[in-house]
Amino acid sequence: xxxxRKNRLRAVTLGAVAVSGALALTACGSDNNNDxxxxxxxxxxxxxxxxxxxxxxxxxxxxxxxxxxxxxxxxSKDFMAACSGVQINYKGVGSGAGIQEFLQGSxxxxxxxxPLKPEEIAQSKKVCSGGQAIDLPMVGGPIAVxxxxxxxxxxxxxAKTLAQIFASKIKKWNDPAIAKLNPGVKxxxxxxxxxxxxxxxxTTDNFTKYLKAAAPADWKFSGGKAWQAPGGxxxxxSSGVAAGVKQTNGAIGYDELSYATSGKLQMAxxxxxxxxxxxxxxxxxxxxIADAKIVGTNGDxxxxxxxxxxxxGAWPIVLVTNEIVCDKGNKADTLPATKAFLNxxxxxxxxxxxxxxxxxxxxxxxxxxxxxxxxxxx
Length: 378
Description:
By secondary structure, this protein is α/β, with parallel strands linked by helices. It folds into 2 domains: about 25-140 and about 325-375, D-Maltodextrin-Binding Protein, domain 2 (3-Layer(aba) Sandwich), CATH 3.40.190; about 140-290, Periplasmic binding protein-like II (D-Maltodextrin-Binding Protein, domain 2). It has 12 helices and 16 strands. It has helices spanning about 70-80, 95-105, 120-125, 160-165, 175-180, 200-215, 235-245, 255-260, 280-290, 335-345, 350, 365-375; strands spanning about 25, 45-50, 50-55, 60-65, 85-90, 110, 135-150, 155-160, 195, 235, 250-255, 265, 270, 295, 305, 320-325. Strands 1, 4, 5, 6, 7, 9, 10, 11, 12 and 16 form a 10-stranded mixed sheet that branches. Strands 2-3 form a two-stranded antiparallel sheet.
């Protein structure tokens, strides 16, 4: 898996659309009817490669994380090409908004870059009749530290320096703390423009978890999906942060690797305490995901990542996007399409495509557990 591969797959933003004559599938509810005609001769058991359509049909609505949007876009095209009776409509609105739409019963599943909170699981029981929402890890999303400083092609930072930059304590690129990490690099007397996400974001949550874990003395904020530090510039979505950094000399931001590579943005290395600074690749990110622990209970597969790792070659800033779905209580019309699509995207074939889009595939052990959880959805 090499960063040098060009990302030729475009992000596909699939907005929810009205489909004439088609039933819009919503998330979870108290619909206890049987399949009631959900099987279709045109789609039942249809297969194309690793895609198994089974009895899936209709318009499947989902929303959430923009971090996984490139992956979901490609997977949706692949799935719909094989299963002509299904329309996948995924809106990249951010993890926080996606979870809220799911909890309101508006979508079949949500994408979130942070596991569900206990209060969200409790709230989900209102829409998951007889069950609750669970986290299914699906997409490994390395978070890059992107920057745009004219004349600086190689940059090394560490957690302490990053925390001070994003807390507006380090304000110039030639600050002694940055210079110490970059001997021999000519750093300009240029103001730092630090970009963060405008809306609630799982990417923000994971980035600040890294700062809290690796530089607790310098990052005093409580963290979460909402940005809390003073100052800086805000931008909407992953694409907004990437665009802001690319257009601004002196800018720095955090964004998913897929946006960094597709936008041809410079990425900093990190001094983590390992023998040498770590560059971000899908391989270095996978090392961090493989070290994660499953901490969810009652069928929930939420992961706990080690953001303060000093392991050789491990990139510590990584997120895992979860698909949030009801374990029980899914609507009968929604369930076949939900299971078929989720089964496809966790398949070996679909996961193998992630590296070409600058994502990190799930480790085999975690993927196996996700497949088992999907098979028991009802």
